[in-house]
Write a structure and sequence with these properties.
It is built from 5 helices and 7 strands; from the N terminus they run E-H-H-H-E-E-E-H-E-H-E-E. The protein is α+β, with helices and mostly antiparallel strands. The chain has a single domain, classed as Gcn5-related N-acetyltransferase (GNAT) (Aminopeptidase). The strands form 2 sheets. It has a 4-stranded antiparallel sheet, sandwiched between helices. Helix 1 packs across helix 3. The chain starts with 7 loop residues before the first strand and ends with a strand.
């Protein structure tokens, strides 16, 4: 099946999407971190069910991408930040992430910002590569002791937005 030829629909999230958003977020997060993050961090994330609590609070800020009726990704632009971007692991590499990223950047640009920024975990090398290929540059790093007891490093990345 050619995913690029599928029927894609980018739209604001709706409350009735919440359970599907939570499922997508859980699967995407585990896919991103299962092979690279320390077990204590993963166990804490699962135990606290951070995806469910965050998404119940912030779903109205999200844009979702549907393909043939399936929810395949989400982006959460917030002020001048891409605060979250997740794509179903089975749909990564189909252009869905790029479409969501550019949609989030457009929301930020329309709000009057000239740049977009995000933070990415150093444990998520695949995402770091994704953002670099799309014009994001590293502008800083910080380390912190996570509530799980694991030291984490967050990488701040920025990209200038084209004025329109």
């Amino acid at each position: 099946m050619n995913m690029m030829a599928s029927n894609r629909n980018l739209r604001p999230a709706r409350e009735e999407d919440l359970e599907r958003l939570i499922d997508l977020g859980r699967r995407s997060w585990l896919s991103a971190f299962a092979q690279t993050a320390p077990f204590a961090l993963i166990a804490w994330w699962v135990r606290k069910d951070r995806v469910a609590s965050l998404y119940r609070q912030h779903w109205a800020e999200m844009l979702v991408l549907e393909e043939n009726g399936d929810l395949v990704g989400l982006v959460q632009p917030q002020d001048d930040e891409i605060n979250g971007l997740w794509v179903d692991p089975a749909r990564q590499g189909t252009g869905a992430g790029t479409l969501l990223l550019r949609a989030g950047e457009e929301v930020i640009r329309r709000a009057g910002h000239r740049r977009a920024w995000l933070t990415c975990s150093a444990f998520n090398g695949k995402a770091l590569g994704f953002y670099r290929k799309r014009g994001y540059v590293e502008t800083g790093r910080d380390r912190e002791l996570h509530a799980s007891g694991v030291e984490v490093e967050n990488i701040r990345m920025e990209r200038a937005l084209d004025p329109k």
